[in-house]
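User: Fold this, then the next.

Assistant: Folding the first:
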Amino acid sequence: MASNISGIDGAAGPGQVISVGAGRPIQRPQDPVSGGPSADTSKGGSPQQDVQITGTARQLADLDQHVRNLPDVNEQKVAQLRSAIEQGTYQVRPRHVADQLLSLERSLSSLPDKE
């Protein structure tokens, strides 16, 4: 199974910004001598041309695409909530809301600080 990753095949020119991952732009490193793209010569003195993609990376790319294909709004859920509010049957559960907020705060606090 082949994976298509934009810019990996060498199609991007020197200094050209390409998109990878979740649409984050990157710029190819420049060789300080030639001004062209840097070549990895760490193995045998010749540029590295092959790219190996792990199963995990492929799975992440598939999941990323799946999430991108999901609708921004769950219309069925919105219709259910709208109906419940209009009928006066919607009940706010403060304990549940508080628990969810605390859970989110705990999840966010475990992320590393970016400075």
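Now the next one, as you asked:
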Amino acid sequence: MDYFVYILGCRDKDGLRTYVGWTTEPERRLGEHNAGTGARSTRGRAWALIHLEPHASKQAAMSREWHLKRDRRFRKRVAEERMRPARRKRAR
């Protein structure tokens, strides 16, 4: 069984937000977060999966999750890269 560490991102009135978790089924877990049945801190927002890492064991996934939750610089960089607003073409 594969385990995954994921980072979710969303853009709201306060800017970019991220959430880090681990799961065996990333798409199902994203659906739970967006349906309001995920973690309390993710409720009421539209999340996108912005980073996914596979791990061979539950322990490895949980350890990586712990480290990513403390690495705000990495999460911010990933969110900024993956959630750039679409550029509008300027009329001439």
